[in-house]
Amino acid sequence: MDQIPIRNIYISPDRQRQEIKQAKVAELAVSIQAHGLLSPIVIEPLDRTRFIDAPPHCTHRLLAGYRRLLSHALLKIPEIAFTLKENVDAVEAEEIELDENLMRENLTWQDEVKAKARLVEIRKQKYGEGVREVAEHIGESRGETWEDARLAKAMEVMPELAHAKNKTQAQNKLRLAVRRANLTEKAEEIRTSAKAINTDLSTRVRLGDSVILAKDIQSESVHLVLTDPPYGINLDQGETKKGSPHPTIYGEGENDATYDIQDLTALIAKEAFRVLVPDAHAYFWFDIKAHGKILHLLTEAGFTVDPIPLLWVKPGPGQVNHPESRWGSGYEAAFFCRKGNRALLKQGQSNVLSHDPVPPKKKIHPVEKPVALLRQLIESSTAPAEIVVDFFGGSGSTGEAASQLGRDFLLFEKDPAYHAGILERLSGVIIGKPSASMDKASDDYDPLAALEELDGGNY
User: Fold this and answer.
1) Where among 162, 184, 207 does a domain terminate?
2) CB 3.0 to 4.6 Å from 279: which of 99, 246, 342, 375, for a disulfide?
3) Does residue 175 fall inside a structural domain?
């Protein structure tokens, strides 16, 4: 087999493989020393009009086999076997290098996806091939090649993707960015259509039994259910502090008993599943003692439920009626439910939610949740202008949180006094206009217009 002096080979600075691990070079050198060079490098005559900075002693340019060349140099072997390619244009030379690198792997994930994207472009230009043919050429599924080529293109627009720990993490970040862009684009359409946010609170805060009124909601028309059904623990006795001035909430003559409340939750869960769009989320707050029963009810309604609940942890010693025999209750639990496959818009969050409770003197409702807590859930599961439903409106804090984030909302409240309190509370909120804090957070919802072509015909 013909040999060429290593010093005569020019390595162009624009080669595709930019990072070579010395350990891999040493490993290959050991193999070459033991078994010889099994596959020759590929070279072409050096075009000095193209590579004017090449040293005068170089006669050929390397097309494929950079690690083999380095391994020979490490072993201080002055010559190396080669295969000569002549009359190779720049595109074909790049194709050879890409093929070589992809077939032999050991690329960083960043270089790998860039190589696939470039190979797709080259083979489409030269042979009219699509992603399927390129995938067959390099021996992987069409989906993997498409995802990797798409990621490489996205990295040109979003360089931060290249800093991901691995390709899987980068792919997940890209999918999230595209989802955000699509959802935000849809939200803009909603704002400019006849479905734009209605400023009439009377149509958005409904008085009456939510089980009955929910039937008026069109199926698959809302984007998030965030609700806090009664827990069935008798608010005016039992677990609450003695003498707590909680009024009757659930109607004259009705007993807030566990059996009745579980029936109520089951009915609402079915309505919630019906009214949600095909890919959506729901959050149901519940009494931790009824974990298994409520989990079963929500699953029966059709939801995919994470059995490990979200925990809202309240600072301080917690509430307890019998401190001599019980630990203080310092958290509340909520099930995260999914209908379909919608991803969280804010990922990587802990299921432990730390927010200060509403001070007792400022509470509108005895079991009122803080707006900041509800904002976190709404922002994690909806895009601007999407619709949030709370079947047990209580204090109206869900409506306030939704409004601050530029989401639409629909609340139900059975008690006339609390219903009036919700109307009074929300009348002071700028309906349909994101707050200053939302404006600050809007960078998270960048439409990434430059990514639109990623889902087009190129791939």
Assistant:
1) 162
2) 342
3) no
